[in-house]
Specification:
1240 residues; oxidoreductase activity; oxidoreductase; alpha+beta; six-stranded mixed beta sheet; 32% helix
Length: 1240
């Protein structure tokens, strides 16, 4: 009996399938209370945790890898972590810590360059404890005994609605399938599970085949055939085939190589560990990649039933509809036969998805060609496409017409026409992207054609190959090993002074051991209930009736709450508008809260919520886009404007005038921890405690008090930490908390609400989409004389924070450029979508994107590199913004020069030009962009911070402050500050939580201002304390801190001290276009290089260099983490993260399978981060670098321009954000796009 270690996704693993398995979670790996495992230690010590919510998953993936491969390679680590998502760190420090487990040779290849003024590095790998095998759990012997006893027994689990049956063996399975013909077979649960959860499909009986040994085998038969049995996991198949191809001759393994290439890109390691080959085939999902490859290979299936067996060829006819095959209800798939290829047989597989890996394919295909021996004449050709129709599609007719033809350019031209005419993709095809899909279909065949030409050239020495028409360079190669370096600056100071040192995140080790507590980790209180919202399903409609009869009759349901149940106010004022908590009469978008079900359990509440029936009367108008809002003149007030100089006169004196526009899509926060709250009624005077995930506890307190009709002091909000926030946990969580608090008030019991990912994305929305329209006048040398820019933001159906966001965009209109005549207007569009809200950068990334697009377009018109135009127009020395706030641009220019130098920009630009000349089908681009980002709130009253320091008789210190720990490390920095002022070890200082009872009326943790405001308040509180203790210290200078504290207590000196920071009086006079909008500006520069595949639109990020001015960093590694994490979040914003809505306004991209944030394979292969040295004062850094993702966007656009130049297109072209593979491919105009458009 063998023991295997697998990392799996808990959400996919039914608990019944774990019978007989030994489950290890992060808590079992190690603990700070006992002994940490090296994996846990290293990810934390390498600063690989920020919010910490993803850290346990990272630890378990790496731990499993080490159990199977004690000395992994970097490729092993990347594969192991590919299925883990992180929204905070940018992945670099995680890899940094885990690469220390690599073999010595791999570590040398994976090089880091860390330079400090002082000699110590951010962590010392030599100090790490070694892996101790005795610390690992052994497989419980009793489970081995149980497994042997139960190996031939049927197991049945009977639930409330579902019966789970694990057959004893294959014979028992066939018997059960005849008894339950419509019961699905379940091995990995990767199809059945999501269907049950997200589509509400109920299967009364489930047959688990994962334990049937006869279905888990792989055999290599004597007749040159591989036999894969249906329940074999994809991981097992991949590992077996990898071993096989090492020893097989190339001619026999062509098909296996194609299959391996596909298996390596199917899902992630965690999913492949449970997903089966049978499930992949029988799911009949065109997005699943294996079927097209297996069909092209000429595979066949063995099918069994109680009545016998039969064989079926795996062709397009086997798949009858989505989710349906030619199998009869009582039949099961036994195995798939995979033949070897022979000489003169060639096979390739292709796929293209929204991102490079860990994503469903848009189009996948398998292609196999056989030639008559010794010739280039086609004997047979098989081409199968997935994603080109409802089921697998074959170009059978086209292939037959190409048999007997020579493999040359004439065949290529005819093949493209034939394939395109045979595959019918209507405009209404599922998933859209019809033009892109058709282009991919042709591009894949062209790639196949080129590959076979190379093969034939090697095999037929007399065959003349012509590459002149289509030069090579069509493939984007394997991802090189990640190379990352960064520099940091520490100033000379006493060793006991922690400020400025790269201290590990205060909760880092708790993150990695799973001991860090988030709101949903708090144990249930006796009698606790669960709440699930009932939300609107129409974008604009009048509510006619709400029928709760069936829902309230269901088991466990306690109540349905709606507007009539609100004890206080169901409405609250926000600026000039009234905002409803529960919608009473008219819904304005899909996803608005109409009511809520309260029940004994989550599942009961969820089922009952689905049985609340709301009747609507649809209303007009209904529209969702900025363009439609403009047509309807649907805008919020006020409309803002800033102006410097005389724009119209500037146009008159310009050499050239350019007009254009750029659209920038929205972005989902995708924090790892979804929104939620626990409300605990105290039973006296309307008191309620809220344990809540919010960045703005005071606002949640206010909204809850308003809804309950009580004063603020009756509501106490507790925030331990957030699993990510990014601005998304400021506004929306307040209304969610109010609803939950009402439920607690009405029932008198504790109530918990945890939004599912899909609910969260549907209800809370994200970053505002923007449309920027511009007119710019410039001289022939690139000097911009005048610019007129109008920003349109899609605000959604209520104002939320849209006014602040459009203002932020306008205030960043100039970025780093002194444009003498500049006018900007900001207009908020009212649409019938959920209200967009705050997001990291707060309008800055959108506003900056437009002016940088202007710079690029001007450069293109002048025939100059964009970076030269940037330099020509850049602010220098003492300057004034377009709203007349003064600033010194010296450090901005320093960052620019230093970044270009560190990045070897000019040499690489030449190299790229040469590369693009030599390669037709892949191109490279490089872009460097500066930033000037305002720090603080434009409303002066928000620029404040508060702190409370309590010193206890034993000398320990309890520190409370007005900030929220959400991964940025504010608690760590505050402890460092307190430690410096109080001159005590950091271990003596503790921060328990953020609470409205400790520090009232706090501002939100936002605007990159938390450390500034709170840090000064903590400093003030600690200095106040030290001033009180000073007389005692002077009397007893040689005594200890503990002595001084105890003496102060005896002398009746208060050991509780408050601190406060009053920030600057920021404000803007919008009528006069002037004001001091920000406390100060942070500067930085980013340079990125990319490579695109012109035939698919895929891109890879080759290198990124960042130089950032953070002043005198309080903690360099935390700041670098914010810089890199912000950049990678921006990378997603500008390239992969695309929000899609249905025609009725329903968000389609709800969840990780549809919405793609960057993964570990998306980050640059080389990333160098430097902090500008010899600068003063700490600077806010949380938000600015999100904008640096645009460097990848503009580098992509430069690469596209190079591709277009090859076909004679020199004009400016539009590329909107995000630059998805679809947009990149269609912008790379060539004969294939032209062919599709002629047909399309």
């Amino acid at each position: 009996m063998s023991i295997s270690h697998f990392s799996v996704n808990a959400c996919l693993l039914p608990i019944c399938s774990l019978n007989g398995a030994a489950v290890t979670t992060v808590e079992g790996v190690g603990s700070t209370k006992t002994k940490m495992h090296p994996v846990q230690e290293r990810i934390a010590a390498a600063h690989g945790t920020q919010c910490g919510f993803c850290s346990p998953g990272m630890v378990m993936s790496m731990y499993t890898l080490l159990r199977n491969t004690p000395e992994p390679s970097m490729e092993d680590i990347q594969e192991a972590l590919l299925g883990n998502l992180c929204r905070c760190t940018g992945y670099r420090p995680i890899v940094d810590g885990f690469k220390t487990f690599c073999q010595v040779s791999a570590i040398h290849i994976f090089s880091f360059s860390i330079t400090n003024i002082e000699s110590d590095d951010t962590f010392q790998a030599d100090d790490f404890r070694l892996v101790d095998p005795t610390q690992d759990f052994i497989f419980p012997p009793e489970l081995m005994i149980v497994a042997q006893k139960q190996s031939h027994q049927r197991m049945v689990f009977q639930g409330e609605r579902i019966k789970w049956i694990t057959p004893a063996d294959l014979e028992d399975l066939l018997e059960l399938k005849s008894q339950y013909p419509h019961a699905p077979l379940l091995a990995g649960n990767t199809t059945v599970g999501p269907d049950m959860k997200f589509k509400g499909i109920l299967h009364p009986v489930l047959l688990n085949i994962g334990r049937i040994q006869e279905l888990r085998e792989i055999k290599e038969c004597d007749d040159g055939i591989w036999l894969l049995f249906a329940a074999c996991t994809l991981t097992t198949i991949k590992e077996k085939l990898e071993e096989a191809v090492k020893v097989l001759p190339e001619e026999k393994s062509e098909g296996l190589h194609a299959l391996l290439e596909t298996l390596g890109k199917v899902a992630s390691k965690q999913i492949r560990n449970v997903a089966s080959v049978g499930g992949n085939i029988l799911s009949s999902n065109p997005k699943f990649d294996l079927c097209s490859v297996l069909a092209a290979l000429g595979c066949s299936l063995t099918i069994l039933s109680k009545d016998g067996s039969r064989k079926l060829n795996l062709t397009e006819g086997f798949f009858t509809a989505v989710g349906k095959t030619a199998l009869k209800p009582e039949e099961v798939m036994l195995s798939v036969y995979i033949p070897y290829t022979k000489k003169w047989e060639f096979m390739l597989a292709f796929r293209q998805a929204q991102c490079r890996q860990f994503a469903f394919s848009i189009i996948n295909c398998g292609m196999k060609v056989i030639f008559f021996e010794g010739t280039n004449v086609v004997k047979d050709l098989k081409i199968f496409y997935g994603g080109a129709g409802a089921t697998l599609v074959s170009t059978r007719n086209a292939s037959q017409q190409l048999v007997g033809r020579k493999w040359n350019d004439n065949l290529l031209t005819d093949a493209c026409k034939l394939v395109l005419s045979e595959i019918h993709l209507p405009d209404t095809a599922h998933g859209g992207m019809v033009e892109y899909k058709k282009t991919l279909i042709l591009s894949f065949f062209f790639k196949f054609y080129l590959h076979i030409l190379q093969k034939l050239k090697a095999m037929v020495t007399l065959y003349k190959i012509r590459f002149s028409v289509f030069p090579l360079g069509c493939q984007i190669g394997h991802r090189p090993l990640l190379i990352i370096s960064y520099s940091e600056a520490l100033f000379s100071q006493p060793l006991e002074d922690p400020v400025g040192r790269p201290n590990v995140h205060q909760s880092g080790f708790k993150h990695s051991t799973g001991e860090a507590i988030y709101y949903d980790d708090i144990p249930s209180i006796d009698g606790e209930l669960f709440l699930v919202f009932v939300t609107s399903t129409r974008p604009h409609a009048k509510i006619i009736s709400i029928d709760t009869t069936e829902a309230l009759s269901m088991p466990g349901v306690v109540a349905f709450l709606s507007a009539k149940d609100v004890p206080g106010n169901n409405k609250r004022r926000w600026f000039h508008d009234m905002v409803e908590l529960f919608i009473e009469e008219e819904v304005m978008c899909v996803g608005q809260m109409i009511g809520a079900i309260v029940a004994e359990t989550r599942e009961q509440a969820r089922r009952a919520a689905q049985k609340v029936y709301v009747s609507y009367q649809d209303l007009e108008p209904v529209f969702f886009t900025i363009e439609e809002a403009i047509n309807h003149q649907s805008f919020f007030s006020p409309q803002r404007k800033l102006e410097r100089g005389d724009v119209d006169v500037g146009f008159e004196t310009s050499d050239q005038i350019l007009e254009g526009e750029i659209y920038m899509g929205g972005q989902e926060h995708f924090y790892m921890e979804t929104q939620g709250v626990i409300a605990v009624p105290k039973g006296e005077n309307g008191e309620t405690d809220l344990f809540i995930a919010t960045q703005h506890a005071a606002f949640a307190q206010e909204v809850v008090a308003n809804a309950l009709g009580v004063s603020f002091n009756k509501i106490t909000c507790h925030v331990k930490r957030l699993g990510g926030g990014f601005g998304g946990k400021i506004m929306k969580i307040a209304d969610i908390s109010a609803a939950v608090a009402i439920a607690a008030y009405r029932t008198g019991r504790s109530v918990r609400c945890v939004l599912e990912r899909g609910e969260d994305m549907l209800m809370t929305s994200g970053r505002h989409p923007f449309l920027g329209k511009y007119k710019v006048g410039f001289m022939n040398d690139g000097t911009i004389i005048s610019a007129d820019v109008t920003y349109y933001s899609n605000a959604g159906n209520t104002l939320d924070e849209s006014q602040f966001i459009i203002e932020k965009a306008l205030l960043h209109l100039d970025n780093c450029y002194k444009i003498p005549n500049l006018r900007g207007r900001g207009i908020m569009c009212k649409t019938y979508l959920p209200s967009y809200t705050a997001f990291r950068g707060f309008g800055g990334p959108q506003g900056l994107m437009v002016i940088e697009s202007v710079i690029n377009e001007v450069a293109a018109k002048c025939g100059l590199p964009a970076e030269e135009v940037r330099e020509i127009n850049m602010y220098r020395n003492e300057s004034h913004t377009h709203f007349r706030q003064s600033f010194d641009a010296s450090n901005m220019v320093r960052c620019w020069n230093e970044c270009l130098e560190k990045a070897s920009y000019y040499q690489r630009r030449q190299n790229i030009e040469e590369f693009n000349k030599q390669n037709r089908w892949k191109k490279r681009g490089i872009s460097a962009v500066p930033i000037k980002f305002g720090i603080g709130f434009t409303k002066g009253f928000c620029n404040q911070g508060a702190a409370l320091v309590n010193v206890y008789k034993d000398g320990s210190v309890l520190l409370s402050h007005s900030g929220t720990e959400m991964g940025q490390g504010i608690n760590t920095k505050m402890i460092q500050i307190a430690s410096r002022i109080l001159k005590i070890p950091q271990s003596s200082i503790y921060i328990v939580e953020t609470s409205t009872a400790s520090v009232p009326n706090a501002i939100p943790s936002a605007a990159s201002f938390g450390t500034d405001a709170v840090g000064m308040a903590v400093k003030d509180a600690c200095e106040n304390m030290m001033n009180r203790l000073q007389p005692i210290i002077e009397q007893h200078p040689k005594m200890s801190w503990e002595y001084w504290v105890k003496e102060a207590y005896l002398q009746r000196i208060s050991l509780s001290s408050t601190g406060f920071f009053k920030g600057p009086n920021t404000d803007v006079d919008w009528e006069r276009s002037e004001g001091n909008a920000y406390f100060y500006f942070t500067f930085g520069v980013c340079c990125s290089e990319v490579e695109i595949d012109c035939l698919t639109g895929e891109h890879k990020n080759i290198r990124t260099d960042i130089v950032m001015d953070v002043g005198q960093s309080l903690n360099p590694t935390l700041d670098i983490g914010q810089i890199e994490g912000g950049f990678v979040q921006g990378l997603g914003l500008y390239t992969t993260e695309e929000l899609k809505f249905s025609p009725s306004g329903v968000l389609i991209t709800r969840g990780p399978s549809q919405y793609k944030i960057p993964t570990i394979c998306d980050i640059p292969e080389q990333m160098n981060t430097s902090l500008l040295q010899n600068t003063s004062n700490p600077h806010g850094i949380g938000e600015p670098t999100v904008f640096f993702g645009c460097t990848v966007f503009f580098a992509i656009k430069q690469a596209i321009a190079a591709a277009r130049k090859d076909v004679g297109l020199h004009d400016n072209f539009t590329l909107n954000s995000p630059a998805t593979p679809e947009k990149i491919r269609l912008a790379c105009a060539d004969q294939f796009t032209q062919m599709v458009r002629c047909v399309y």
